Amino acid sequence: MHPRDLSSHSAYVPGRGVEEVARDLGLDPDDLIKLSSNENPHGASPDAVAAIRDHADGISVYPKASHTDLTARIAERWDVDDEQVWLSPGADGSIDYLSRAMLEPDDEILVPDPGFAYYGMSARYHHGEVNTYPVSAEDDFAQTAEGVLDSYAGERMVYVTSPHNPTGSVMGLDEIRTLADATAPETLVVVDEAYGEFAELDSAVRLLDDRDDVAVLRTFSKAYGLAGLRVGYAVVPTAWGDAYARVNTPFAASEIACRAALAALDDDDHVSNSIDTARWAREYIAAELDAHTYDSAGNFVLADVGDAERVAEAAQRNGVIVRDCSSFGLPSCVRISTGTREGTKVAVERLNETLAELELGVHA
Ligand code: PMP
């Protein structure tokens, strides 16, 4: 007995966790600052945590009402129909739902390189093929319609990540509109706004008012601090919103996830505080880190440190976990998630010490 041929499938490489690193290095987990997975350093909204406790007794039933309520609440927030909101286990789940809804075997998708690995993984699970368009350091990772269209060959889906992981660059609404206008009517442009709250940019959801070839991904994992719960969604055009019923895994988001997300949506203070901290911290990192950094609209900063593997490893010993971007095809860069104000300051200090020890980086 064997699984199907998975040799063209790459494994997802997550950022390393605190316990794992502490155990490996014989360190106290409390001494480590984890800035490797773009998580919310403020944690979840206290209201979300309270909602989880309040609804703990309800987990023996399928999440019917909470699922419907969360869908309606998100639809109201974006001023779209309920059918346009596809709840999923994380935005990752929405990527799968869109693959299921769009891809016939051998259909192709176009994704950014470097970029978020799961787009290609999901397409391959669904018997699709993956092509890439470059997002290059020479252009400061700028994202334009033209840059995507140069590589476009009629693919069924085109992914745009804005803000882009791992670089932090964005694609403005006009460029996305130009891209969607220039691609074939049966090409879906998926705008991944997993980090959308941190950017000072209009969401692409408004494009859905008058077109049927754009979908937008959003998540509760980042600004809302619910990464551990796995809840996200896609906003899709009215024209084919009803496909959800045919492609979703039943009860896509759990009872607890839905209850927590409902509470988190009402905690404006927590979200705005999270956004303010990320915006402050990305500026702080850019100003104070002794390495070249790229402008970021996300809750992370890409830094060119010369040798990502060495720096990420040495930084861990100095108490900071950052993301080695070799697996993104950027072996000289690390991605540093934004921490709390205090945590970010300490992390930058430790990273600068690390760079000095290794004689890497740009020293003042
Ligand atoms: N898109 C991008 C660009 C991401 O970086 C991530 C998380 N790392 C996701 C989507 C998925 O997020 P989640 O499944 O936690 O909602």
Describe this structure in words.
Helix 2 packs antiparallel against helix 9 and helix 4 (90-102) packs across helix 5. The protein has helices at 18-25, 46-54, 65-78, 90-102, 118-125, 145-149, 173-182, 244-247, 255-266, 268-288, 308-317, 341-357; strands at 33-35, 85-88, 108-113, 129-134, 157-161, 188-192, 214-219, 232-235, 292-293, 300-304, 320-324, 333-337. The radius of gyration is 20 Å and the shape is globular. It starts with 17 loop residues before the first helix and ends in a 7-residue tail after the last helix. It is of the alpha/beta class and 364 residues long. The chain has twelve helices and twelve strands. The strands form two sheets. Strands 2-8-7-6-5-3-4 form a seven-stranded mixed β-sheet, with helices on both faces. It binds 4'-deoxy-4'-aminopyridoxal-5'-phosphate. Residues 90-92, 116, 161, 165, 192, 194, 219, 221, 227, 232 line the site of 4'-deoxy-4'-aminopyridoxal-5'-phosphate (PMP).
Helix-strand layout with pairing:
Blueprint: H1 18-25, E1 33-35, H2 46-54, H3 65-78, E2 85-88, H4 90-102, E3 108-113, H5 118-125, E4 129-134, H6 145-149, E5 157-161, H7 173-182, E6 188-192, E7 214-219, E8 232-235, H8 244-247, H9 255-266, H10 268-288, E9 292-293, E10 300-304, H11 308-317, E11 320-324, E12 333-337, H12 341-357
Parallel strand pairs: 1-11, 3-4, 3-5, 5-6, 6-7
Antiparallel strand pairs: 2-8, 7-8, 9-10, 10-12, 11-12
Helix pairs in contact: 2-9, 3-9, 4-5, 10-12
4'-deoxy-4'-aminopyridoxal-5'-phosphate binds next to helix 4.
